[in-house]
Amino acid sequence: MHGLQLTADLHDCQCEARWMLDAQALSAVCVEAVEAAGLQGVARLFHTFPSTAQGAGGVTATVLLAESHLCIHTWPEQLAVTLDVYVCNFGGDHSDKAHALMERLLALFAPTHVERHAVTRGRLAAANA
User: Fold this and answer.
1) Is the pLDDT of residue 12 over 60?
2) CA-to-CA distance for 85 and 1, rounded, in angstroms?
3) Which strands form 3-11's sheet, in the order they lie side by side?
4) pLDDT tens digits along 36-62
5) Element (H, E) at 118
6) Which residue spans within 38-90 are E strands per DSSP?
7) Which listed residue (13, 30, 68, 94) is catalytic?
8) What per-residue confidence (pLDDT) applies to 124?
9) Catalytic one of 27, 73, 95, 99
10) What are the tens digits of pLDDT across the range 107-121?
11) Do 15 and 22 contact (CB within 8 A), yes or no?
12) Cα–Cα distance measured from residue 73 to residue 114, given in angstroms and rounded to the nearest whole number
């Protein structure tokens, strides 16, 4: 279960509105970004929320990876997005691929401010002496 989880909170996104509103468009670009990073998508679910008094509904996007997952939540009324990329390093270190996927998505949403975090999950136990 050893892996890397990258999260990013994106503020004041300057991207085309469709990336925050259109589940089908976001689905296509996410699958392309996953493949470009060298990761393997195994399933996906994209949901568009209805409009509210605050504005257009956002999108929740999930791509299940053989290596773990990609999750995106958009808040178009706030020009905000949250990203979560988690890769297990079973069978090899996929950390560089996780970083490549994150960078591609950051470029897509074009935020003016980003809060990033990286967490090493399931640290490997020290070998018994």
Assistant:
1) yes
2) 15
3) 41-48, 59-65, 68-75, 80-88, 3-11, 113-121
4) 999 999 999 999 999 988 889 999 999
5) strand 113-121
6) 41-48, 59-65, 68-75, 80-88
7) 68
8) 65
9) 73
10) 999 999 999 999 998
11) no
12) 15
